[in-house]
Amino acid sequence: MKPCPFCAEEIQDAAIKCRHCGSMLGETAAAAVASRPLASGTEAPAVVAIFKGAPSWKAQFWSEVAAIALGVGGLCGAPILHLSFGVVWNWALIAGSVALGLGGCWLLYLWAARATLKFLITTRTIDVESGLLSKNIETLQLWRVRDIEFHQTMTDRLLGVSRVRVFAHDVTTPQLLLWGLPGSRTIFEQLQDALEIARRSRNVLGLVE
Questions:
Q1: Do residues 55 and 179 make contact, with C-beta atoms less than 8 angstroms apart?
Q2: In whole angstroms, what separates CA 148 from the centre of its chain?
């Protein structure tokens, strides 16, 4: 005899379907066990990582293009203003320097927004780590998630990135945007499967809208 990974009732070792809750058993059963609290002295199964890393620069493609264009415009703008429009060289140089500085600061901001943000999606939780000098980690338990949404713009599809918006029954994090993820649906589908297992393990299916 063994416990069902979904309802914890005793079932036969060779069972492929629980006679108590009707859940199908198989590869998903092992993942479900990882979401359940274990008895004292029992070794917990390893949590499987679905995605780990920072957002891709491709998710900010148009912002980066605009920042580079602003900087290049600043480099080329000063002589154009002076030679073509008769603007005093000193004023033209100041205007070009300001545009170049703004473009550089914009690029630095975009880089910092990616470099200081890391996502860790596992079969149990979603961790969001942020901060440059200091560090802050927010953890969302998957069983609290109400729904998830996969989104790609046309540019995202061309560049191979995607966004996943998470809606949760959580006071501090009712919505969470995971951006700059790989463009395939693999992560999204794996997260869907992990959500289903986490909900069953906590018996919170009735809370999902």
A1: yes
A2: 11
Nearest alpha carbon to residue 57 among 95, 111, 102: 111
Distance CA(147)–CA(195), nearest Å, equals: 9
**Neighbour count for residue 197 (Cβ, 10 Å):** 26
Burial class, 66, CB count within 10 angstroms (exposed 0-12 / middle 13-18 / buried 19+): middle
Question: Among 139, 64, 141, which residue's Cα sits nearest to residue 104?
Answer: 64
Q: Which two tokens stand for residue 182?
A: 């790989």
Kindly write down the DSSP assignment for every residue of 125-156, as one continuous string.
Answer: EEEEEE-SSS-EEEEEEGGGEEEEEEE--HHH
Q: Which residues contact 41 (CB under 8 A, 6 or more apart)?
A: none
Q: Taking residues 22-28, what's their average pLDDT?
A: 54
Q: Which tokens hold the place of 115?
A: 């470099």
Find, among 20, 96, 25, the residue nearest to 5 by Cα.
25
Closest CA to 168 of 201, 143, 138: 143
What's this model's pTM, rounded to 2 decimal places?
Answer: 0.71
pLDDT in tens, 82-97: 888 888 999 999 999 9
User: Is 118:132 a contact under the CB 8 Å cutoff?
Assistant: no
Nearest partner of 123 among 56, 55, 29, judged by Cα? 29
